[in-house]
Write a structure and sequence with these properties.
Its main location: membrane. Keywords: ATP-binding, Cell cycle, Cell division, Cell membrane, Membrane, Nucleotide-binding. This protein is of the alpha/beta class. Helices cover 32% and strands 26% of the residues. It has a six-stranded mixed β-sheet with strand order 6-7-8-3-9-10, sandwiched between helices. It is globular.
């Protein structure tokens, strides 16, 4: 599903964000990525959906070699990967329904298929009744739910979440995690970078710990392992 072999990422400013990373994530796994600020977590996440390219090494996602993937093929790759961001990245002038539907419109799905699927995912995230509202009329937690709905509307095999609970209060964060568990239970592979120690220690899943650009710990049902 996701393979990294001897992956190194050096930025033009001389910073080496990742060093010789080797990992394998199987279909259907739920994986936390943890580590101190500046350890390389965000780079690790961005490499998976080709926001960044590795300096050396090989990355394969869903059978696609990202190291040799042409830029013009990146949009096609991203149709197979759902991405959830800390800051939501919703289109403010579009309604909840339109924000989610947009992800299906770009792949030219039929209007009837779009309506059916969008309402299904809005129901899953508990926002069916707010389909006509604008993002600015929603709470932060509700906006994140819209972001999640958008990320899964095209039924991707992989969902990548970069600090998805970082801007949310604890109760709202637990609600978001409940949605992620439901998504994972349907067979979707989920990779989540997080600083939320309580969530990692309560909902035990595989933990990849990154320090100074290296994977220093890889544990099934691991804990957070850092003081924050």
């Amino acid at each position: 599903m996701i393979e990294m072999k001897d992956v190194t990422k050096k930025y033009p400013n001389g910073v080496t964000a990742l060093r010789g990373v080797d990992i394998s994530i199987k279909p259907g796994e739920f994986v936390y990525v943890v580590g101190p600020s500046g350890a390389g977590k965000s780079t690790f996440i961005k490499l998976m959906y080709r926001e960044e390219k590795p300096t050396s090494g090989q990355i394969v996602v869903n059978g696609v070699n990202l190291s040799t993937l042409k830029d013009k093929s990146v949009p096609l790759l991203r149709r197979q990967i759902g991405v959830v961001f800390q800051d939501f990245k919703l289109l403010p002038t579009l309604t909840v329904y339109e924000n989610v539907a947009f992800a299906m419109e770009v792949i030219e799905e039929s209007p009837s298929a779009i309506k059916k699927r969008v309402m299904e995912v809005l129901d899953l995230v508990g926002l069916k009744s707010k389909a006509r509202m604008l993002p600015g009329e929603l709470s932060g937690g509700e906006q994140q739910r819209v972001s999640i709905a958008r990320s899964i509307v095209n039924q991707p095999k992989v969902v990548i979440a970069d600090e998805p609970t970082g801007n949310l209060d604890p109760d709202t964060a637990w609600g978001i995690m409940d949605i992620f568990e439901k998504i994972n239970a349907k067979g979707t592979t989920l990779v989540m970078a997080t600083h939320n120690k309580e969530i990692v220690n309560t909902i035990r899943r595989r933990v990849l710990a990154i320090e100074d650009g290296r994977i220093v710990r890889d544990e099934q049902r691991g804990d957070y392992g850092y003081e924050i």
